[in-house]
Amino acid sequence: MACLSLLAGLAIAGQAVAQTSQPGTLRGLDLPGLKPQGGAQQDAPAGPVFKTKHVTAELLSEHTTLRPGATAWVALYFNIIPKWHTYWRNAGDSGEATRIDWALPKGYAAGEIVWLPPERIPVGPLANYGYSDEAIHMVPITVPKDARPGPNATLTANVFWLVCEEVCIPEEGVLKLSLPVAGGAPVADLRAGPIFRKARAALPKPSPWSAQFRFEDKRFRLDVAAAGLKREVIEDAWFYPYGHGVVKYAAPQKLTVTDRALTLETQRGKAAKPITEVGGLLVLKEKLGDGGTVTQAFRLTAIEADSGFSIGFWEAVALALLGGLILNLMPCVLPVLAVKALSFARHANQGRGKGQGMARHGFAYAAGVLASFAIVGAVLLAVRAAGEAAGWGFQLQEPVFVLLMAYLMVLIGLNFAGLFEIGGRFAGIGGSLAGRAGLSGSFFTGVLAVIVATPCTAPFMGAAVGFALGQTAAVAMAVMLALGFGLALPFLLLSLAPPLLRLLPKPGPWMVRFKQFLAFPMFATAAWLIWVLSLQAGDAALLGALAGAILLSFAVWLWQASAGASGRWRPAGIGLAALAVVAAFAMVRYADGGAPAPVRADRAPESAAATGIVWEPFSEARLAQRRAEGRPVLINFTAAWCITCIANEKVVLRLESVRQAVDAAGMATLKGDWTRRDPVITRHLAAFGRSGVPLYVIYPPKGSPKQPMLLPQILTEGGTIAAIRSMAAEAKRAERSGN
Amino acid sequence: MTKRLKTLTATAFAAALLASVPAAASTPEVGRPAPDFTGVDSNGASVTLSALRGTLVVLEWTNHGCPYVSKHYGAGNMQKTQKSARAKGAVWLSIISSAPGRQGHVDGAEANRLSKTRGAAPSHVILDPKGVIGRKYEATNTPHMFIVGKDGTLLYMGAIDSIRSANPADIPRAKNYVTAALDEIAAGRKVSQPVTRQYGCSVKYAY
Q1: What does CATH list as the number for A206-304?
Q2: Which pLDDT score, from 0 to 100, does residue A353 have?
Q3: Class of residue A164 by CB neighbours under 10 A (exposed 0-12, middle 13-18, buried 19+)
């Protein structure tokens, strides 16, 4: 510490060298080792300001006094000359974070620097994280309870910083700030006020979302469980890790936004040790409806995603092959294959299709499986290329797809159960194509096997396909095909080695029973799918799916029952069946248009939580009614995809202090949810000159001459409470004058 | 249907196929073969890493204008490290990847003069003004250190020492990672800290 204050003088001396330096020339030298040790010794009278050629450093206090027992906020403020910058806590590829060593009176304690979000500073193939033009480093100082009011207390900051343009200059300075110790209400420092306001508005907030990370070979992937955001409202997203080795600083970070998560993908860094936890700032720049943007920084700690094991290419292929083999045993696949195998067995026993014929069927089947996997693989890669986060089972995120799969399972189940037969000698299984007797029948059995395998594979195949998707398209495709080959293998072997068929039990009436039995796994799968659907799209979708399944069954029965009928009955049966099918598919509406989860999730914890404001749904009638009751009204226009709205709710509107202010003011609180565009809300936004959310309006009670008051788009605790109180006072005034 | 399904169009298909197969870039990784290179030294001689098989090789990225490099040269720490490495039979290559017109860029004569005046003892100073070798090693800082084993395997990469600062007063308290690694290699042990976080100025690459 003493050494540092000595260096303060030296920095000025060192500065003399820097003064003559020109960026990019050989003279841009500042050789700390060659500093004239012992020169410039006399202690320059240290004050709150310290100036070098590049940086004017100043120590500021938010309030004019230090209050005993309170936390005083001070800030080290840098005014940096154009094009030069100082650094964030993780400086990136080069550079060094600004450091403060405090020398404080006894009993005082300084906290860590509260880092504001940095900017990216690209330097050719490298990048730094830092600040240009200005840097604000807020630090909490704990003032002891027994600090004696009266005499000034001096806070001494020994500051080191590196300032760089092309070349870098390490600089050091001593800053001293003397403040009177006094009790009573704090008085804001007028000059420091704007700087603290700016800093507080930019302060990183705790992330409202959980996060996971994963290293995949040379990639780093961060998944933030931010449900319901919209890709198009996010202008820029960047993850600034606190630690080194997480990301390659200069590499672009690719943003994808799905219903469930926000994902950033980039190249991984070179870490000295295995990384098990990744902390950092997620900085999102959001476009607001009125053409402006708001930048929000969130502090988050990401935990490692489960399947983060890394495997090599051949291991992945081998695992995929094994996985494919296992797929044959899945409850939704086995029945399909069993039935097909039975038909094979019959074939063999009838003495037809032996040898080459059988082999051709086997190959056709394998081709069907492989073609399907190739298509699924290509689609996954296409989705990945289109910027969506895709994984195996991505189809299952689509409620409509889940519903159609459930229908398919029901139909296959009904078929197995014997409710209907689709022409062809070898009991059709779920589709006329697959039921065809010829080679195309075998091919489409392969296709069907893949389709029905989907719901079963999603939970099991995640790792292999996750690996595949992190790879080049060629590797990804190889893994997908290995998976397919594994699925096709048992059947292919059976067809290539007809003697194996003898191992199959002899055909007989038991086959019918067995097939009927196999209907139950299919129904079980359908039940699971409908459950998944209910989670995705809600109760309406659940009812829709069940009704649809019954309608479909009814249609099948009608079709079958009227088959032998004569006269009008046949067309009537067909017509009615068609109507039922149409109705079943109309249920898709409930799956597709289901309420998005965020809105439901939002409502539940709010009413359940003891703290926080209870919001009534916004409507014009309710607004008028509450105002007529003589109450001021706070309206929160929000949307599930609006990051700023979520941040405001989690950080400010949930606060107990805000709820108390609302209660004390007798204020009604309405929430206008604009997640799905609502013309009434749109009109209200427009009335305030806005075309997007967030918008916070406080209406005075009816009859007050006061205009509705707008809160800023980024709420602060103090500002919000002050606004609520001012309108409460207005309400009381209105009441008095009304009386 | 919804948006996600709509994105599964033929266009995206084509894009996926085109976007596939990126070139596999070799990056330096401890335990794997160090990227090979051929450079020209300050005397115009050609130096090839693979031709140095059978010898330990230390790579040092440097820029004499950088305060962090100056910290170690000003205090004689880098020279000491060089001499002890060479005494153990290692070849020391100082590599300058600064682009013409940017900090640290020098010609051969200037490089030799700098070695002489600073009492530096590299086996060669390699001039890499296009940053070819630097980019191959993903050298980000000056100083940035690498050790290549006798069999051509990368054994160490990272910082010169453990205290990330430009202050020469920190040198005596710091652990010199390069010397420590060389000692371990000489003793036939595994390098206990094979990857550390390098610190210093950015390499002044051409861009």
Answers
A1: 2.60.40
A2: 44
A3: buried
